[in-house]
């Protein structure tokens, strides 16, 4: 049995594999989540806080059900020890309105890897108000008005 003396190198390789996985993620690829995530991994974003692969897989499966052509573009990746920080663009179209109009959400992810290179923590950071709510028909007008009021 070989053990690594450089956890940063191991986590860097795991982070690179994970970035490729997310950039190529498809509805069928959601089933491969267990190749990258620990069974007890935690996932948190502005709308979800779940633990375990089935719950995390459900979030990504729902993404494909609710949106047209969702996909990620990883723009930056920084690894230090067992920690990783990625910035990304999430590109998609809504199914219910503005069909065919590409939307982009900019965000970042903090990842914690186990010694075995599996994700134990996946925490997404993005501004739901600016990146999502402002793009919605009725809520968007209210969000833009609130933003203007806060800036005066």
Question: Could you explain the architecture of this structure?
Answer:
A hairpin with a 4-residue loop joins strand 1 and strand 2. The protein is α+β, with helices and mostly antiparallel strands. The model has no long low-confidence stretch (mean pLDDT 87). The protein is 32% helix and 36% strand. A 6-stranded mixed sheet has the order 2-1-6-5-4-3, covered by helices on one side. It has a single domain, classed as Roll (Nuclear Transport Factor 2, Chain: A). It has helices spanning 7-23, 53-66, 128-131, 137-150; strands at residues 37-44, 49-51, 67-80, 83-94, 103-113, 119-125. The radius of gyration is 17 Å and the shape is globular. The longest helix has 17 residues, at 7-23.
Distance between the termini: 63 Å
Order of helices and strands: HEEHEEEEHH
Number of helices: 4
Q: Give me the CATH fold name.
A: Nuclear Transport Factor 2, Chain: A
Main sheet record: 6 strands, mixed
Radius of gyration, CA atoms, in whole angstroms: 17 Å
Mean pLDDT: 87
Strand order of the largest sheet: 2-1-6-5-4-3
**Amount of beta strand:** 35-45%
In short:
By secondary structure, this protein is α+β, with helices and mostly antiparallel strands.
Which characteristics define this entry?
alpha+beta; Nuclear Transport Factor 2, Chain: A; 6-stranded mixed sheet
How is this fold's topology laid out?
Blueprint: H1 7-23, E1 37-44, E2 49-51, H2 53-66, E3 67-80, E4 83-94, E5 103-113, E6 119-125, H3 128-131, H4 137-150
